[in-house]
Design a protein that fits this description.
Oligomer: single chain
Helix content: under 10%
Order of helices and strands: EEHEEHEEEEE
Structural class: mainly beta
Number of helices: 2
Radius of gyration: 16 Å
Distance between the termini: 45 Å
Number of domains: 1
Strand content: 35-45%
Number of strands: 9
Length: 142
């Protein structure tokens, strides 16, 4: 039977299911710009290439901004983001208001490594939005 009707829906990159067709974003970190605050679009892209030219960091969006950007967001919504440090120095992801680093998660990323991050929403209540950032794995780029 031929496909006669299809309505696309917004799918965030996950480890299962369809992949977001625009699943890459990028950022550049220098001494003058550190820490670079990521936009929600960069965070929800699925893959983030970071050219860390000088020791510095990327700051995740606030929990309130993340909750507002995720359509149908509810407690336990998870967003996965591969961060690839393509620069020549260590990159340190940092949390923002309402976001905490999960127990046992490490932030620093050596040059030419990648790390899979998971943001888990823990509160969607207006004014007290919250999420936990977990580092799941680390790997070399080459």
């Amino acid at each position: 039977m031929p496909l006669t009707h299809w309505t696309p829906t917004r799918v965030y990159t996950t480890t299962s299911g369809p992949i977001n067709p625009k699943a890459c974003a990028s950022a550049t970190v220098t001494t003058a710009t550190t820490p670079v605050t990521l936009t929600t679009a960069q965070t929800l892209a699925g893959v983030l290439f970071v050219d860390c030219q000088d020791a510095g960091g990327i700051k995740f969006p606030t929990a309130a901004n993340l909750v507002a950007a995720i359509q149908g967001c509810e407690v336990d919504t998870c967003v996965f983001l591969w961060v690839l440090n393509t620069g020549d120095t260590t990159l340190t992801p940092v949390v923002n208001t309402g976001v905490t680093l999960g127990t046992g998660s490490t932030a620093a990323m050596a040059t030419l490594t990648s790390k899979l991050w998971m943001l888990r929403v823990t509160s969607v209540t207006a004014g007290s939005e919250a999420a936990t950032l977990w580092s799941l794995t680390v790997a070399g780029l080459f």
